[in-house]
Specification:
The complex is a heterodimer of chains A (about 110) and B (about 110).
Chain A (H helix, E strand, L loop, with lengths): L3 E4 L2 E4 L5 E7 L5 E8 L3 E10 L2 E4 L7 E2 L9 E3 L8 E8 L8 E3 L3 E5 L1
Parallel strand pairs in A: 2-11
Antiparallel strand pairs in A: 1-3, 3-8, 4-5, 4-9, 5-6, 7-8, 9-10, 9-11
Chain B lengths: L3 E4 L2 E5 L4 E7 L4 E9 L6 E7 L4 E4 L2 E6 L4 E6 L8 E9 L5 E3 L3 E6 L1
Parallel strand pairs in B: 2-11
Antiparallel strand pairs in B: 1-3, 3-8, 4-5, 4-9, 6-7, 7-8, 9-10, 9-11
Chain lengths: ~110, ~110
Amino acid sequence: EAQVTQNPRYLITVTGKKLTVTCSQNMNHEYMSWYRQDPGLGLRQIYYSMNVEVTDKGDVPEGYKVSRKEKRNFPLILESPSPNQTSLYFCASSERETVFYEQYFGPGTRLTVT
Amino acid sequence: KNQVEQSPQSLIILEGKNCTLQCNYTVSPFSNLRWYKQDTGRGPVSLTIMTFSENTKSNGRYTATLDADTKQSSLHITASQLSDSASYICVVSADSGYALNFGKGTSLLVTP
Protein backbone atom coordinates (compact mmCIF):
# COMPACT_ATOMS: atom_id res chain seq x y z
CA GLU A 1 0.00 0.00 0.00
CA ALA A 2 1.33 3.43 -0.97
CA GLN A 3 1.72 5.48 2.16
CA VAL A 4 3.62 7.94 4.29
CA THR A 5 4.37 6.71 7.78
CA GLN A 6 5.43 8.65 10.85
CA ASN A 7 6.72 7.55 14.22
CA PRO A 8 5.94 8.03 16.96
CA ARG A 9 2.29 9.01 16.62
CA TYR A 10 2.22 10.53 20.10
CA LEU A 11 5.09 11.87 22.16
CA ILE A 12 5.32 13.67 25.47
CA THR A 13 8.75 15.00 26.37
CA VAL A 14 10.45 17.58 28.54
CA THR A 15 12.14 20.81 27.57
CA GLY A 16 15.63 20.34 26.18
CA LYS A 17 15.54 16.59 25.59
CA LYS A 18 16.52 15.91 21.99
CA LEU A 19 14.05 13.97 19.92
CA THR A 20 13.58 12.69 16.40
CA VAL A 21 10.35 12.10 14.53
CA THR A 22 10.78 9.69 11.66
CA CYS A 23 9.04 9.87 8.31
CA SER A 24 9.15 7.30 5.56
CA GLN A 25 7.41 6.98 2.19
CA ASN A 26 7.24 3.96 -0.10
CA MET A 27 6.24 5.75 -3.31
CA ASN A 28 9.75 6.69 -4.52
CA HIS A 29 8.79 10.35 -4.26
CA GLU A 30 11.44 12.99 -4.74
CA TYR A 31 9.85 15.74 -2.66
CA MET A 32 9.19 15.53 1.07
CA SER A 33 8.06 18.16 3.56
CA TRP A 34 7.40 18.69 7.23
CA TYR A 35 4.51 20.80 8.52
CA ARG A 36 3.20 21.79 11.88
CA GLN A 37 -0.44 22.49 12.54
CA ASP A 38 -1.64 24.70 15.36
CA PRO A 39 -5.19 25.82 16.22
CA GLY A 40 -6.12 28.98 14.37
CA LEU A 41 -2.91 28.98 12.32
CA GLY A 42 -3.43 26.14 9.90
CA LEU A 43 -0.61 24.15 8.34
CA ARG A 44 2.80 25.78 8.17
CA GLN A 45 5.80 24.36 6.40
CA ILE A 46 8.90 23.73 8.50
CA TYR A 47 11.38 22.25 6.01
CA TYR A 48 11.24 20.59 2.64
CA SER A 49 13.52 18.41 0.57
CA MET A 50 13.69 18.28 -3.20
CA ASN A 51 15.81 15.14 -3.30
CA VAL A 52 18.51 13.25 -1.42
CA GLU A 53 20.90 15.64 0.33
CA VAL A 54 18.88 18.68 -0.81
CA THR A 55 16.86 20.47 1.87
CA ASP A 56 15.61 23.99 2.42
CA LYS A 57 13.77 26.04 5.01
CA GLY A 58 10.05 26.56 4.96
CA ASP A 59 8.11 29.23 6.80
CA VAL A 60 8.89 28.20 10.40
CA PRO A 61 12.28 26.40 10.51
CA GLU A 62 13.58 27.80 13.82
CA GLY A 63 14.32 25.08 16.36
CA TYR A 64 14.18 22.23 13.84
CA LYS A 65 16.66 20.26 11.76
CA VAL A 66 16.14 17.75 8.99
CA SER A 67 18.23 15.39 6.93
CA ARG A 68 17.64 13.47 3.70
CA LYS A 69 20.26 10.75 3.42
CA GLU A 70 17.94 8.31 1.69
CA LYS A 71 15.13 9.03 -0.74
CA ARG A 72 12.46 7.33 1.37
CA ASN A 73 13.29 8.86 4.77
CA PHE A 74 13.04 12.43 6.02
CA PRO A 75 13.46 12.66 9.81
CA LEU A 76 12.61 15.80 11.79
CA ILE A 77 15.00 16.58 14.62
CA LEU A 78 14.33 18.82 17.60
CA GLU A 79 17.73 19.37 19.24
CA SER A 80 16.37 21.19 22.28
CA PRO A 81 12.57 21.12 22.31
CA SER A 82 10.66 23.95 23.94
CA PRO A 83 6.98 24.21 24.95
CA ASN A 84 6.20 26.40 21.92
CA GLN A 85 7.00 23.39 19.75
CA THR A 86 4.01 21.55 21.18
CA SER A 87 2.01 20.89 18.04
CA LEU A 88 0.65 18.37 15.56
CA TYR A 89 3.29 17.49 12.98
CA PHE A 90 2.73 16.12 9.49
CA CYS A 91 5.16 14.70 7.00
CA ALA A 92 4.18 14.76 3.33
CA SER A 93 5.61 13.61 0.02
CA SER A 94 5.02 14.25 -3.66
CA GLU A 95 6.37 12.66 -6.80
CA ARG A 96 8.12 15.83 -7.88
CA GLU A 97 7.67 19.55 -7.34
CA THR A 98 4.98 19.85 -4.69
CA VAL A 99 3.49 22.94 -6.32
CA PHE A 100 2.62 20.87 -9.40
CA TYR A 101 2.15 17.33 -8.09
CA GLU A 102 -0.26 15.69 -5.67
CA GLN A 103 0.94 15.70 -2.07
CA TYR A 104 0.34 12.80 0.29
CA PHE A 105 0.30 13.34 4.04
CA GLY A 106 1.27 11.04 6.86
CA PRO A 107 -1.03 10.34 9.82
CA GLY A 108 0.54 12.97 12.06
CA THR A 109 2.61 13.07 15.24
CA ARG A 110 1.18 14.83 18.26
CA LEU A 111 4.05 16.28 20.28
CA THR A 112 3.74 17.76 23.75
CA VAL A 113 6.75 19.49 25.33
CA THR A 114 6.44 20.21 29.03
CA LYS B 1 2.04 38.57 0.03
CA ASN B 2 0.32 35.38 -1.09
CA GLN B 3 -2.77 34.73 0.99
CA VAL B 4 -5.59 32.22 1.10
CA GLU B 5 -8.74 33.11 3.02
CA GLN B 6 -11.49 30.61 3.77
CA SER B 7 -15.03 31.17 4.92
CA PRO B 8 -16.90 30.42 6.98
CA GLN B 9 -14.51 29.46 9.76
CA SER B 10 -16.99 26.86 10.97
CA LEU B 11 -20.32 25.50 9.85
CA ILE B 12 -22.98 23.21 11.29
CA ILE B 13 -25.52 21.56 8.99
CA LEU B 14 -28.09 18.80 9.22
CA GLU B 15 -27.40 15.44 7.65
CA GLY B 16 -28.70 15.32 4.09
CA LYS B 17 -28.39 19.06 3.48
CA ASN B 18 -26.04 20.69 0.97
CA CYS B 19 -23.40 23.25 1.83
CA THR B 20 -20.81 25.44 0.11
CA LEU B 21 -17.43 26.45 1.43
CA GLN B 22 -15.54 29.45 0.07
CA CYS B 23 -11.89 30.14 -0.68
CA ASN B 24 -10.46 33.49 -1.85
CA TYR B 25 -6.82 33.87 -2.74
CA THR B 26 -4.27 36.44 -3.79
CA VAL B 27 -1.59 33.98 -4.91
CA SER B 28 0.13 35.02 -8.10
CA PRO B 29 1.11 33.75 -10.57
CA PHE B 30 -1.48 31.05 -10.09
CA SER B 31 -0.65 27.40 -10.77
CA ASN B 32 -3.32 25.22 -9.16
CA LEU B 33 -5.83 25.07 -6.35
CA ARG B 34 -6.52 22.06 -4.15
CA TRP B 35 -9.15 21.14 -1.64
CA TYR B 36 -8.23 18.75 1.16
CA LYS B 37 -10.40 17.01 3.73
CA GLN B 38 -8.85 16.52 7.16
CA ASP B 39 -10.53 14.32 9.73
CA THR B 40 -9.76 15.22 13.33
CA GLY B 41 -6.24 14.12 14.31
CA ARG B 42 -5.43 12.72 10.87
CA GLY B 43 -3.50 13.88 7.83
CA PRO B 44 -5.20 15.87 5.05
CA VAL B 45 -6.49 13.88 2.10
CA SER B 46 -6.84 15.38 -1.35
CA LEU B 47 -10.34 15.89 -2.75
CA THR B 48 -9.69 17.85 -5.94
CA ILE B 49 -6.94 19.73 -7.72
CA MET B 50 -7.69 22.30 -10.42
CA THR B 51 -5.45 24.18 -12.78
CA PHE B 52 -6.07 27.57 -14.39
CA SER B 53 -7.98 26.10 -17.32
CA GLU B 54 -10.43 24.09 -15.19
CA ASN B 55 -13.47 25.74 -13.66
CA THR B 56 -15.17 22.74 -12.10
CA LYS B 57 -14.15 19.34 -10.82
CA SER B 58 -16.10 16.66 -9.00
CA ASN B 59 -15.17 13.85 -6.66
CA GLY B 60 -18.32 11.98 -5.71
CA ARG B 61 -20.53 14.31 -3.66
CA TYR B 62 -17.82 16.97 -3.64
CA THR B 63 -17.74 19.56 -6.43
CA ALA B 64 -15.12 22.28 -6.58
CA THR B 65 -15.38 25.37 -8.74
CA LEU B 66 -12.71 27.86 -9.68
CA ASP B 67 -13.01 31.40 -11.01
CA ALA B 68 -9.45 32.42 -11.82
CA ASP B 69 -10.55 35.92 -12.82
CA THR B 70 -12.01 36.75 -9.41
CA LYS B 71 -9.56 34.42 -7.61
CA GLN B 72 -12.31 32.52 -5.87
CA SER B 73 -13.07 28.86 -5.39
CA SER B 74 -15.89 27.01 -3.73
CA LEU B 75 -16.39 23.46 -2.52
CA HIS B 76 -19.97 22.24 -2.69
CA ILE B 77 -20.98 19.18 -0.70
CA THR B 78 -24.18 17.49 -1.78
CA ALA B 79 -26.44 15.42 0.47
CA SER B 80 -24.10 15.65 3.43
CA GLN B 81 -23.30 12.64 5.58
CA LEU B 82 -22.08 12.38 9.15
CA SER B 83 -18.70 11.27 7.79
CA ASP B 84 -18.34 14.64 6.05
CA SER B 85 -17.65 16.19 9.46
CA ALA B 86 -14.07 17.38 9.09
CA SER B 87 -11.91 20.38 8.34
CA TYR B 88 -11.71 21.41 4.68
CA ILE B 89 -8.54 23.13 3.62
CA CYS B 90 -7.97 25.19 0.48
CA VAL B 91 -4.39 25.21 -0.82
CA VAL B 92 -3.15 27.39 -3.65
CA SER B 93 0.14 26.96 -5.51
CA ALA B 94 2.05 29.71 -7.23
CA ASP B 95 3.66 29.00 -10.56
CA SER B 96 7.08 29.45 -9.04
CA GLY B 97 8.96 28.45 -5.94
CA TYR B 98 8.37 25.38 -3.85
CA ALA B 99 5.82 26.39 -1.23
CA LEU B 100 2.10 25.80 -1.04
CA ASN B 101 -0.17 28.49 0.39
CA PHE B 102 -2.59 27.04 2.93
CA GLY B 103 -5.89 28.42 4.09
CA LYS B 104 -6.76 27.96 7.76
CA GLY B 105 -9.64 25.68 6.91
CA THR B 106 -13.38 25.49 7.45
CA SER B 107 -14.56 23.19 10.19
CA LEU B 108 -17.74 21.38 9.15
CA LEU B 109 -19.98 19.52 11.55
CA VAL B 110 -22.81 17.42 10.15
CA THR B 111 -25.43 16.55 12.76
CA PRO B 112 -28.12 13.87 12.68
